[in-house]
Task: inverse folding
């Protein structure tokens, strides 16, 4: 195992450009799980991001919230303004592990870990977040809902770092985050759901029911058009268009589909056409 | 790379030592520094037995690489006053004791930051510390009592 310890962002980007297979490490809450019994996990070059002060602060501009590449869940939980303007970020952050994980885990790490069961990604996607990637060659911005191309596949080149996440400020008339797990705390989602409505329209984002976190365009269209939905079962055809749940250690495809239908039906009962 | 040198503040005093790149903070504390109050439970960030403070926040030391510690502030259960346990004894908040150091670390942090109780319940703040003996009510009572509450609120469910 080799560790590279840059002090600044330009140094970190330089190291990533020279070490094509290097793994950036921030809070370590994913990379370090079962670390001591997985020696194969040590056979990498790691680039430690923890000293990159420039990536730490959370900040506000006139039209967006900017999460730094090292902003943690706890940073967001403690930010009064985020609690008011983007309550789903706080709701989701409070359901990631517990304080010990929230204090270390980062939003950018949640995005690049690319778990289909992530808690942070669905709420960011429901707020139309934009991923800001930087390498020695420059910066690019990728909308989060176009960031993933398949299971653990994403639009980040090995020499790029997520340096920021931009969350556009909008007036939301409806927003909800749901996480169904085996326990109320310290659980991984069997089904997750983030729904928002703004002038930009409805956003319905599902977790743990597909190889990636993803938007549900068919369900969004039902909401936009006011289609008649009289029971959870009426949503099953649209759900089948949008997601592809599987049986695994945490749940079954059948359970996930049914629970997603019920969550959507009951949470949005005021909006379904009659 | 065989070793690297890290220098940080541990329980208020500066320490400097050579560590292996793969060492977890938990290993460094227990096996290099002899601070065995911090326990290893699950090794995957679920149980909280290895809770220490990193720059004042509770973290699972099994998920912290020691190479990140340069310039940081670490505090372990050894830094706490033994009186921090009084409410735990009164409320029956310990049995086998394996989880207790981690539980006390989180409890003490809540006690030092009572403003957190404006937005969080004791139960939510303690959710990262698993205990397989007490059934939690004794722990929640002890923490509630330690922060100046009645200590029995959670029994009125």
Result:
């Amino acid at each position: 195992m080799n560790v590279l310890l840059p002090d600044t962002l330009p140094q970190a980007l330089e190291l990533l450009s020279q070490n094509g297979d290097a793994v950036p490490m921030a809070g370590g809450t994913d990379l370090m799980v079962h670390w001591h019994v997985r020696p194969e996990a040590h056979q990498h070059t790691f680039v430690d991001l923890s000293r990159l002060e420039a990536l730490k602060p959370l900040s506000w501009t006139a039209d967006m919230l900017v999460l730094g590449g090292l902003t943690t869940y706890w940073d967001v939980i403690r930010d009064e303004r985020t609690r008011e303007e983007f309550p789903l970020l706080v709701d989701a952050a409070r359901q990631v592990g517990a304080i010990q994980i929230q204090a270390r885990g980062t939003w950018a790490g949640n995005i690049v870990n690319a778990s289909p069961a992530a808690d942070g990604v669905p709420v960011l996607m429901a707020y139309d977040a934009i991923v800001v990637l930087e390498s020695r060659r420059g910066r690019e911005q990728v909308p989060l809902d176009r960031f993933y191309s398949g299971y653990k596949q994403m639009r980040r080149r090995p020499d790029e770092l997520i340096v920021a996440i931009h969350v556009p400020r909008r007036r939301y008339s409806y927003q909800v985050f749901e996480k169904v797990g085996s326990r109320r705390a310290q659980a991984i989602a069997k089904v997750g759901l983030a729904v928002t409505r703004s002038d930009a329209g409805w956003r319905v984002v599902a977790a743990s029911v597909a190889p990636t976190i993803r938007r549900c365009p068919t369900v969004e269209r039902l909401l936009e058009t006011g289609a008649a939905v009289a029971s959870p079962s009426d949503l099953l055809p649209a759900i089948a268009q949008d997601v592809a749940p599987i049986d695994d250690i945490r749940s079954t495809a059948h359970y996930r589909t049914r629970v997603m239908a019920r969550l959507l039906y009951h949470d949005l009962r005021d909006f379904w056409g009659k | 790379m065989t070793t690297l040198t890290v220098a940080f503040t541990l329980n208020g005093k500066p320490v400097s030592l050579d560590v292996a790149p793969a060492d977890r903070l938990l290993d460094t504390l227990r096996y290099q520094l002899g601070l065995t109050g911090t326990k290893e439970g699950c090794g995957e960030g679920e149980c909280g037995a290895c809770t220490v403070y990193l720059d004042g926040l509770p973290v699972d030391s099994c998920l912290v690489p020691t190479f990140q510690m340069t310039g940081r502030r670490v505090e372990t259960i050894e830094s706490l006053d033994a009186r921090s346990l009084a409410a735990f004894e009164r409320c029956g908040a310990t049995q086998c004791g394996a989880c207790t150091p981690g539980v006390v670390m989180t409890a003490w942090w809540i006690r030092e930051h009572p403003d957190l109780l404006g937005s969080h319940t004791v139960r939510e703040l303690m959710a990262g510390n698993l205990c397989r003996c007490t059934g939690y009510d004794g722990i929640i009572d002890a923490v509630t009592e330690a922060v100046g509450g009645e200590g029995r609120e959670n029994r009125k469910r």
Residues 82-155 of chain B form a domain with the DNA polymerase; domain 1 fold (CATH 1.10.150.120). The two ends of chain B are 56 Å apart (CA to CA). The helical segments of chain B are 25-32, 86-91, 100-112, 122-125, 137-146. DSSP finds five helices and five strands in chain B.
